[in-house]
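Appendix C. Worked example: FAD-dependent pyridine nucleotide-disulfide oxidoreductase
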Amino acid sequence: MPEKILVIGGVAAGATGAAKARRTSEDVDITVVEKGKYISFANCGLPYYTGGVIKERSSVLLHTRQSFGKRFNTDVLTRTEAVDIDPKSKTVLLKTSKGEIERPYDKLLLAVGAKTFIPPIDGVEDVPYFTMRTVEDADGVKDFIQKHNPESALVIGAGFIGIEVAEAMLHCGIKPTVVEALDEVMPNFPHVVAMNLREKMLEDGCEVIVKTFVTKLEKNEDIIKAHLSDGRVLETDMVIMCTGVKPAVDLALNAGVELGERGGVAVNERMETNVTDIYAAGDLVEKVNLITGKKVLLPLAGPANREGRTAGTNMAGGDMTFKGVLGSAVVGFEGFVMAQTGLTYEQALQAGFDADYVYTEDVNRASYFPVHGHIFMMTVFDKKTGKLLGVSACGPDTTEKKIDHAAVALYAGLTVYDLEHLELCYAPPFASAKDNLNIAGFVASNELRGSGYLVKPEWILEQVRKNTGLQILDVRTAEEVDEYKIEGAKHIFVNDLREKMDMIDKSRPVYVYCAVGFRGYLAVRNLRNRGYEAYNITGGIEAYKRLVRL
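Step 2, the predicted output written as structure tokens:
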């Protein structure tokens, strides 16, 4: 008899696993069990469907039960919940609308994903709220908007889904207020990068409250009152919980499946658990971070699909391994893009690296091309080896493209010295001749070679606030200086520096800045060649201003 493969859970990992198992072998029986109505849908697209960017509901429904079953010769059971697994008898107890049934298996894939984390807010059980995990969730939000025409929405949480839902509310003509308990929106990003997204949200009409959490919710007729930890009380027409997820591990635990150190299901490279013939993939499993070697939770669609593909291959008799993750991710808001891959500086230090970072900012297309913008980038690397550890960036379209390139560099184990020599596509409408990653490589490599003489804007800001009397030199144009300058800075335009160098006290260090760092670097090299102790503020005044606004 053919082996029986039973997949619990559809969507990313489960549906992908079942499809890959069928592509691997026609000699297995495959059954997919899905608790919800839809076997395969684009849950990452739900906020965009809610906000009207995706017009047709059918666009987010990738497969029906019938189409998936027909294409992959698979038995698909929707609205069916797996309630118990017996590894000894190799059976699963299923709960359907008609009662309970048992299904045998030879190989089992757990792909039940994660569940929305609802914070312990006083009164949350008594107030209607929405989440954004399933098609039914999106339907509920759209139906409420159509029936009640709300003017305001409270979005609790400023992670990926929170940002996307806030944008969707704007598209629906609803004023969103986003409340985030941590210090900044998208708290897994460096604050100096994420604050740019917060400013964009404010600029476009979204209220954003950080370092504050909701303590109580109460409903008064059609109005919901949200009490905040800072004492404020907000009134809103609807509440959407975007407070993150946690692995759905109850079914696995009851089957004797072990969890890892982060609370997700522990698996090996073949996606096998500790229980024979039980595999797991997707948001419920822990992954290996490819840079640190440590286990992480990363509820993203890309890794879930690749894990499902690996499990499906192996369950059907093939041989495949899943190497791990880098944490590559992107979020957008009204045309503004923020993306990162690898480790932040803080994460690199926590992992034991002797890490450093540089700020760079440059155009995403040729500066003379009619449509171009600036990408702000933070590049993290190991000081001893130059190995690239992570890149975070924000800016216009193509920002995500730079992070995609950085992810490939990270996967290949490249150094910042290698970034100097990356040969990437260039034509004025698409990129700059010196790509943003090339620039990051130039700056970081110069610093490691001892010719960059960089100083962090964080330290400069600290000294300015302490009024320590640093000798600071601004080498921008007079027009730029009039717009914004560091208090107490001396101004000499970079082109006039040779003639006016005697205006600088040679007995004291001089800290130089321009807009983003390039002219500052030219000035520092000039000063150093004349015997001055000169340092360039990495990222220039643009990085400094971001820190001031934090």
